[in-house]
Structure formats: C-alpha cells, structure tokens
Amino acid sequence: MNPVSTITSPAVPLLRDNIDTDTIIPSREMKTTGRAGLADGLFAPWRYTDAAARVRDPAFVLNQRDAIGTRLLLAGRNFGCGSSREHAVWAMAEFGIEAIIAPSFAPIFKANCLRNGLLPVELPEEVVQSLQWKMVRIDLPAQTVTAGDRQWQFDIDPEAKQMLLEGLDAIDLTRKSQPEIDRWLARDRIERPWIYLGEES
Amino acid sequence: MSQTLFDTIWNTHLVAESGTGSSLIAIDRVFLHERTGAAALKRMAEMGRAVLDPARVFAVMDHIVDTRPGRGDGTLMPGGEAFISETRAACRAAGITLFDVNDRDQGIVHVISPELGVVLPGCTLVAPDSHTCTQGAFGAFAWGIGSSEAEHAMATGTLRLTKPKQMRVRFEGVLAPGVTAKDMALHLIAAHGAGGGKGHVIEFAGQAVGALDMEARMTLCNMATEFSAVGALIAPDAQTFAYLAGRRYAPASFDDPYWRTLASDPDALFDVDIIIDSASIAPMVSWGTSPEHAVPVNGAVPQGPDRAHQYIGLAPGQQLEGTPIDAAFIGSCTNSRLSDLRRAAAIVRGRRIAPGVRKALVVPGSMAVKRAAEAEGLDRVFIEAGFEWRMSGCSLCFYAGGEGFPDGARVMSSTNRNFEGRQGPGIRTHIASPETVAASALAGAIADPRKVLAS
C-alpha cells in the first residue's frame, strides 16, 4: 500500500445520501477475479447513458471538465453502504480518487478504504456542502482539512492513521504478534475445543 | 462490572492490544463465496501466504451459479465460469472445504452455515459478504468484511479491530398476525434511517425477538447491514442450542456450562437503546431506492428524495397497495428458508399468479431447503400457482449481467436491497416479506397479505 500524507485537489461533489457499492461498481462490472481493470466500471449506472457502449452522460459530475483528474470526492451520509465488495474501493483508487469526505461512511466500505490507502474523512454535513468545487488540502499528519482560509479538524483511528502514513501492510504488522496469537490459540484449544475442527479433542 | 453479550465475545477473542488502540481479535470461522473468495485466495497465493488453519475456512458457490435445473459450471453471467473454476482451484490448493455447484449441501452462504453448524454461539465468524450479520442470530459475532480483511483473517487467524459501540434494540410486546421478522427489520430502518446503526454492534432483544424461531431471527439480523451496523446478535437460548446440536460441524450437545454464559447481564449498558412496540408494526413495503424508504403496505408514498421518486415512478401521496407489478421474487439470504417458503405457499396454495406478472421465481436458500420443501409438496404449490421453482443460490437478488427481469419491471422481492439498478438497470424493486410478495403476485399489484390470510 502506498503511503498517504497530504492530498490537494478540487473537491468534486456527489452529495447524495446512501450511495451504495452496487452503484459505485455494479456486480455486472466485476468481470474478473483480480483487482485491476475496474476503473472503467466506476459509477457505471450514472456515468454512462449506455453502460455497454460506454456512452458518457455529460450531466454526471465525474464527466464534467472541472472534475477531470480529481483526487477528492465529496459525498453524502452513509457512503458505501450495501455490498462488502472491495471492488468499490479498488475501482475508485484506480480511477485516481485518493480521499473521500462525507458526513458518514458505511463500516465495511470504510474498513476497505483503510486497507487500500484511500482516505475516508468524516466531517459534518454543512462543512462537506461548503467544500464543493473548492481547492481542498487534506493533511493526514495534522488531521486537518483546509479550503481557503477555513480549516477543520477530523478524527481518525490512530492505528489506521499510522498504517496510512507508513503504507503498512496489515498482515505483516499482525505477524509481529505471532507469539501472542500462538499463546492465545494454545489456551483456547483447551477452553473451546469445539472450535478446532479436524482435531481430536 | 456488568457486560453485554458482545463484551463477553470480544473479551474471549482478545489476543492482544496494539499500542494505538486497536485490538487483535481471533477469528474462529471464515466463509467464502465464489464472487469475492477467489480474489482473496488468489492474492494470498501470489503473496506466498498460506491459510493458517484450513479446517476452519469454508467456501460455497452461491452468488453467480445458475439456478435452472440441470445446472453445471455454466452461468448466464458473462465470464461467470471463471469465478467458479478459479474458486474451485484456489480452495483445492488451500485445502479449504468447498460446497461446490452440485454438492447436496450447496446453498446461500448464510443459509448453509447454520444448517451445517459452522456458526456457533459465542464464536467470531467473518465472510467477504455484507450479509454475514445474518449469522449473529445464533449469538455469534458475525460480520461482513472486504477481500483484504478476508486475507488477513485466513493468514493470521485474527483481525485488527477497534471495538465498535453497542446498541440494543428491544422489540417489546407481540407481533400482530401477518407481521414477520422482515417487517420488524424494515420498520426499524424506516424509523431510524439506513445509517441509524452507524457502525454499532446491535443486540436484538425483547419479547417479540424471543418469540421468533431461528429462521426468523436470521431474517431480522440479516438486514443489520442495511442499518449500517457492523453486526447484530441475539443471545442464544434453548431454541438456538436445539437447532444446532448434532449438526455436522457443531458439538453433539450444548451441556457445557460455557454456553449459559452467553447473555448480556441484566444491568449491562449500551451506548444506544431503542425500544419498539411490536404491536405497532405492520407488513412493510419499500417504496423507493433505499431500505429506509419503507412504509406499511396500506400506507401512502411519503415525500422522499426526488431522484428516488423519479427512479421508482411513484409520486408522494400515492397509495402503494394496488400498484401494478410485473414480477415477483421469493428467495435470498433474507427470506429463502423452509419457514419462509411454507408461509408464502400457504398464501398461494390453490391460487394463480395474475396474468400481468411476467416472471415469478421461488429460489430456495439451499439444496437442503429445496429437498425439505419438496418433501412437503411446496414445489407443486408454487409451480401450480405459476411460479418457477429453482435450484438454490443468490439468483436475482442482484443482477450480475446474465439472467434478468423484463425491462423496466416493477418487482416485488423478498430480498434486502432496493437500490437503483440492484436487480438490473431500470428495474424497480420493492422489498417485503415472502407473504407480501406472494399476495402481490396473486393480485398482480402490491397487496396486503393480511387480506389473503383472512379470506
């Protein structure tokens, strides 16, 4: 995972509540078992008037000239609800989105973001509204969002922050706790033997 | 200090605390399906990472398998076969137990996991599928994760988590006739919003929850993800243990005193408490494009977002009952179990679906459900009424690019998501209980099941 520190970008507004992962990437756009090649299907139901022929809808915000090359999306409440498909995050990252600012995120989507170096920033609805099309700077170390002369602080889980900043791989990090895991398993095999299938207890 | 059931499960599984406030939580069970499982296993293989304990990892083909009789690996979804063949190869290589396309135990992951006793009270279970919360009905902490987290869980037997906040939802009193667990879930989401669970773990409690059978409890917990909750659970009771005892991967008996510890203390504190008067719940139908857009079946469409009205083609103030429908779907991890099919069959028995209903499917949640339903003759009841009777799978709960509903169809569906395009581009989904779907299929329009039950 690439480290994340600061992101400066015009903020493209997609301010609908409850945008779901079926809309971010529909099931029919998940054509392979890999992580790549998904950006084309991002927001397919909204981005294209004819998804099969890839005819773009000029009215959709990501097709507008000012949105080209954006790294930052603004969204409504409960962004990323629905299916757990990590493809939604892979598609956004491949498209070039590096951060999303929204009043709230669905929990699985948020966790998927953090595992892929996509920064989810939660700010109150009125702040998100005020950022539309502004040049916005997100500073992860300082946990601030700046637009013009206004600045807001945001919360982030300390471990998620550290992992994003250092681009850490969660599995590598957890492997450092292998002795604790082994000790826990040894004890649990005695306490809850029914959990351990295929072993004579 | 008094503890909730979730506290107890959390503490049991706490392996270590990181210096930065997260916890390493042991994962007892992982369940994969072909839609997201192959991606996780393939990447692990690429990274040279092994599955720590393959005996505790399971997989099933459910999401894109064909549900027509006589099926093989062929799928109507373009490119779908690759998901099936790659999942099969990856499971074989990793030594994971796979319930393959034509296995007699095949079915929707959240239907077969309890049938086989994979989920157990007090355990942690994850699957790269948002409806994993269904399995919390057994008093487990079960929740949906992404592929990366699935890799983490399989490689290390743990996940790194920050302890979620906790919410208790108490359904007090007794449900009215014709009102089901599906209606409880829709009522809750409509009242508190699709973001109302906001990252909490929910404990469902109260008289009406205790009165639900295990299958109905799964229906209630299933839609916790539509409430933006991490997971939901219901404290195990005699019914839970009786359901699981002796199943293939479950203990033969639940006599160990440990099992009685799986309950919240009476004075345990939750971050949020919601109380609902169960008698006030009516059969619910969604009118819009979010599960929070739901009202009683005899109600009117309220004012919602313009876009939702536009997509669904219903204006504020319009009555839902009597709105013509084009198709009906009974199935999904929400409502495809034997009791669901029995209740729907009781409505359609001896009747015919309306001529305007151009596609009507019943898709049992598992091959075991299918066999049990056939032993009772339910397949004949549905077929004689005009429904297609399918093999088990997720089917048209979502549109994967293969089989679909007629263009622009308005569908009454016993599923969990009425998002724009979920069941196909332009398809307008109304989610409801199986009996409401069945009654509507007979009427050819959105209908109140209580009227059929009373007639």
What does this structure look like?
Chain A has 201 residues and is an alpha/beta fold. In chain A, 30% of the residues lie in helices and 19% in strands. In chain A, β7 (135-139) and β8 (144-147) form a beta hairpin. Chain A is globular, with a radius of gyration of 20 Å. The termini of chain A are far apart. The model of chain A has no long low-confidence stretch (mean pLDDT 95). Chain B is 29% helix and 17% strand. The interface between A and B is large, with 57 and 78 residues.
Task: Write a compact overview of the structure shown.
The complex is a heterodimer of chains A (201) and B (455). Chain A has helices at 21-24, 44-47, 87-95, 107-114, 125-130, 158-166, 170-175, 178-191; strands spanning 6-14, 48-50, 55-56, 72-75, 99-102, 119-122, 135-139, 144-147, 150-153.
The H/E string of chain A reads EHHEEEHEHEHEEEHHH
Indicate the structural class of chain B. alpha/beta
Q: How many helices of chain A?
A: 8
Question: What portion of the residues of chain A fall into strands of 2 or more residues?
Answer: 15-25%
Keyword list:
heterodimer; A: 201 residues; alpha/beta; seven-stranded mixed β-sheet; two-stranded antiparallel sheet; 8 helices; 9 strands; 30% helix; B: 455 residues; five-stranded parallel β-sheet; 19 strands; 17% strand; globular
Give the helix/strand layout.
The complex is a heterodimer of chains A (201) and B (455).
Chain A: E1 6-14, H1 21-24, H2 44-47, E2 48-50, E3 55-56, E4 72-75, H3 87-95, E5 99-102, H4 107-114, E6 119-122, H5 125-130, E7 135-139, E8 144-147, E9 150-153, H6 158-166, H7 170-175, H8 178-191
Parallel strand pairs in A: 1-4, 4-5, 5-6
Antiparallel strand pairs in A: 1-7, 2-3, 7-8, 8-9
Chain B: H1 5-13, E1 14-17, E2 23-26, E3 29-33, H2 37-46, E4 57-60, H3 80-94, E5 97-99, H4 109-115, E6 124-127, E7 141-144, H5 147-156, E8 158-161, E9 166-172, H6 181-192, E10 201-205, H7 207-210, H8 214-222, E11 231-233, H9 238-244, E12 272-277, E13 284-286, E14 294-296, H10 306-312, E15 327-330, H11 338-348, E16 359-362, H12 367-375, H13 378-385, E17 388-389, E18 410-413, E19 428-431, H14 434-443, H15 449-454
Parallel strand pairs in B: 3-4, 3-6, 4-5, 6-7, 9-10, 9-12, 10-11, 15-16, 15-18, 16-17, 18-19
Antiparallel strand pairs in B: 1-2, 2-8, 13-14
Helix pairs in contact in B: 2-3, 2-5, 6-8, 11-13, 11-14
